[in-house]
Amino acid sequence: MSKKRNKQIHIKWGEFFNIYKGLKLPWLIFGIMIFFGFAYGWAVVKQAGLEQGFMSGGVLTTDVIVQYLIISLASMLIMFMQQYVRDGLCVEHINREMRKKLWGNLIRMPIKYYDKETPEALVSRITRDCEKANSLIVEIVGWIAQLATLVMALSALFGYSNKLLMLTGLAIIAVVIYGLAISKVSYWANYMMQTYMSPFTMYLAQRLKAFELIKASGTEDEEFERGQRVINDMYKADIASRIELGVIATYVNLTSIANTVIVYIGGSIMMAKGILDAGVLVAYYSLASTAMNEIMMYFQAYVNIKGSQGGLAKVVRIIDAESEDVDSGEHIDIPDDDIAFEGVDFAYPDGANVLNNVSFTIPKGKTTAIVGSNGEGKTTVLKLLERYYDPGEGRVMFGGRNANEFSKREWRQMFGYTSQDSQILSGTVRDNITYGLKRYVSEEELDSIAEKANLKELIHSLPDGYDTFIDDGGSNFSSGELQRLNIARTIAKNPEYMLLDESTCNLDPDTEIEVQGALEKMMKGRTIVIIAHSYNAIKGADNVIVLEGGTVTCQGTQKEVEERNGFFREFVDSSVI
Description:
The protein is of the alpha/beta class. It folds into two domains: 12-320, ABC transporter transmembrane region fold (Up-down Bundle), CATH 1.20.1560.10; 339-574, P-loop containing nucleotide triphosphate hydrolases (Rossmann fold), CATH 3.40.50. It contains 22 helices and twelve strands. The strands form three sheets. A six-stranded mixed beta sheet has the order 6-9-10-3-11-12, sandwiched between helices. A four-stranded antiparallel beta sheet has the order 2-1-4-5, covered by helices on one side. The chain has a two-stranded antiparallel sheet with strand order 7-8. A hairpin with a 2-residue loop joins strand 11 and strand 12. The longest helix is centred in the middle third of the chain and has 53 residues, at 220-272. The protein is elongated. The relative contact order is 0.09.
């Protein structure tokens, strides 16, 4: 495991508190928790007073017994309600609101953030990691609620024995010191769980979906070894978690043992000397146990908060990340025009340059093909066109103006982007074709779109037609059918500019020809940028750009480029890159 991966991230208190900014907190529930805290404190003190009377030889009347039973039952009911309100209503309310906030931040982040995290890891942030966010608020409100019980119990103790109270004070100091020490263990353990849990679940999810690939590739032994490594990493996290549970258990036992030893040994000595009677000793023990438990709960809460700091390290990074501003910028009032790259350099974060001083023009109303070997920056050009990234150097120009001057939201509305990977969402065929549209799409228009994407016959053959539900990952459709759904979505958007990134690569030859013909009909009068693996997909292109080594080595008409560029000649001759 690399040192970089194991490096522990320390979250400052200010960053920790910042995750609650703008959160809708359950103030009514907080009030109910505090009320129960006062009610429980009153019941404990009242119960201790009655126990003292019993043990001191007081008269046991029916009224006293009934009163004691009622208070005992009431204290148990209050404890139950405290637990339900705190760990049920309050915790789940904050979990829900935190997930909403985290999802809002994720969905508005620049796409460069997603290059650093896998989808599986981001799922873990929302489903599991953010659950620790409730600790700080819940524990602070719990402190206030417990304060009433603690104050009432400590106040009552002053009326019994000063010597026992002094010994109890020493025990409290020991409990506090130990509680501070184990908070660091909790931070470490929770950070370990977050560090190794996401890679573990991600690895399993990916491999379980790719069993056929593993079998076909004969990589069972390699995957076995990789699985062993991630399981060993998860083992480290589990051990850290068990260590945390162990030290917390000793903390609880220490609190109980300290109180029992001090009260009963010290109290027995005092009883032998005639300083105390049994009633006072029992009442004092009851109140001291309550006070010690409340103090233990305070430090248990602190331990939980420190653990949450460790577990929320990566969640805090998402909360603090800058959201992508898609609305600022000028309104696009320029009619369709040429798009030009002027001296563009670009590198992904922590990587070498992908594009180097790239300059070319995409003429309006024409089809431009970008060709080159894998890894030459073709798809990067499309990402810059969509303004998912900004150039490191140089400019992307539109109508003689820098594209960065315009609103990203409006800019992206001009483009239809069909990538080489099928982007299919859970839902119906209709949902996927019309995704992102702000208008109603009639059945007639859907039929027209489906026909152009060579899908109409298939969709009408389905029992539920456009309302057919697409299974997880599109498993009830072929890869070619899923790709045609992507193309149908682009056609439905009716964009001024169409970006086709290997959009026919998953189709069989016959279907590719049919869909290519449909796309060519849609291309008329539009500005098209194509990346393709087959010359058949670009043979109608008006303009060709050749990328080699992240640099434009040739551009012009097909005839011009074929005459001047050996790579393009080979591309045409082989018909496949």
